Amino acid sequence: MTAVESPNQVQRKTTLAEVAAMAEVSLATASKALNNQPRVSDATRRRVIAAAEKLSYVPNSQAQSLISGRTNSIGVITSDLTGRFCTPILLGAEDELGVTSNTVLLCNARGDALLEHKHLEFLLSRNVDGLLIVGDETDTRPHLTVPNHVPVVYVYAPSDDESDCSIVCDNVEAGAMAVEHLLSCGKRKIAIIGGSNTKPNAHNLLLGSPSAAKARLDGALKALHEAGLEPAGPVRFSEWTESWGRAATRLLLDQGVDFDAVICQSDGIARGCMDVLRERSLAIPSQVAVIGHDNRQLLAPDADPPLTSIDNCSEEMGHVAARALLDAINGRPHHGVEYISCRLVQRESTLPM
């Protein structure tokens, strides 16, 4: 007669010692390999992981925490969970952290400093091993005061403490990239419509602000100057919206500015700009080429015509930030600002020569 296993009978779990024996390494080496700690060769790490998979080894999280002094949990605080840049950053971080044994605790501060502080206290009370702080603007943000043993990585909005690790988009490069692409399309009379301007001077340019608008303008002006050019018409700033794109384009046309291309500092501005160009029977891109920024999937591909745009590579920011945090948790902290390169996404609103 075949014995029937009782449903209450619990199958014995594989131990770390059995994994170490199969991989022919010490218990300590097996533990380091499975916890992605340094001083383990790649070949040894692969052998230990293969043994763990073959034996269906499931780590005992409580025992791991007692041995390592870690909780294998990471706290993430966002400024705006629904923000257009936050989601891809979180997806990138999740991809990176998902292959580890870490649990992610996500909190949304909704742009409220007091709520952010409450979330921070909660995450520290849970003894998280590290923190990712995801901003929704490119302006610098205040450094967070946390215990020295808890590493923090700031994403998108850099910390105002230069010794902190901050991962941000290279908006200066983005501005230059837009100009260089239009030059490659044979355009020489390039107008610029700016986004938000919080610190204007008499000439409508930004002073001392690290915002995306100023950084993108800096990059564009540098590329124009290197080509021996100036912007076509005045550079104006207002909002990141389609309505501002329409208003600014009408101003350029009504004031008789001669231009054959427009750099719009957001895809929304670009959509508004193209609305007015079509109203005035100006062909895009043969008479006026248009390029946007951010490569928003709800705006750029479905524009008329489809909009060429500079992609912030937000998901890559999330990947890089998560790797930097894991490095810091393992005793290899990063310091300073790391800029993530953007990429050009060519569509029909610009055509190369």
From TrEMBL:
<dbReference type="GO" id="GO:0000976">
    <property type="term" value="F:transcription cis-regulatory region binding"/>
</dbReference>
<dbReference type="Pfam" id="PF13377">
    <property type="entry name" value="Peripla_BP_3"/>
</dbReference>
<dbReference type="InterPro" id="IPR046335">
    <property type="entry name" value="LacI/GalR-like_sensor"/>
</dbReference>
<protein>
    <submittedName>
        <fullName>LacI family transcriptional regulator</fullName>
    </submittedName>
</protein>
<keyword id="KW-0804">Transcription</keyword>
<dbReference type="GO" id="GO:0003700">
    <property type="term" value="F:DNA-binding transcription factor activity"/>
</dbReference>
<dbReference type="Pfam" id="PF00356">
    <property type="entry name" value="LacI"/>
</dbReference>
<dbReference type="InterPro" id="IPR000843">
    <property type="entry name" value="HTH_LacI"/>
</dbReference>
<feature type="domain" description="HTH lacI-type">
    <location>
        <begin position="14"/>
        <end position="68"/>
    </location>
</feature>
<keyword id="KW-0238">DNA-binding</keyword>
<dbReference type="InterPro" id="IPR010982">
    <property type="entry name" value="Lambda_DNA-bd_dom_sf"/>
</dbReference>
<keyword id="KW-0805">Transcription regulation</keyword>
<dbReference type="InterPro" id="IPR028082">
    <property type="entry name" value="Peripla_BP_I"/>
</dbReference>
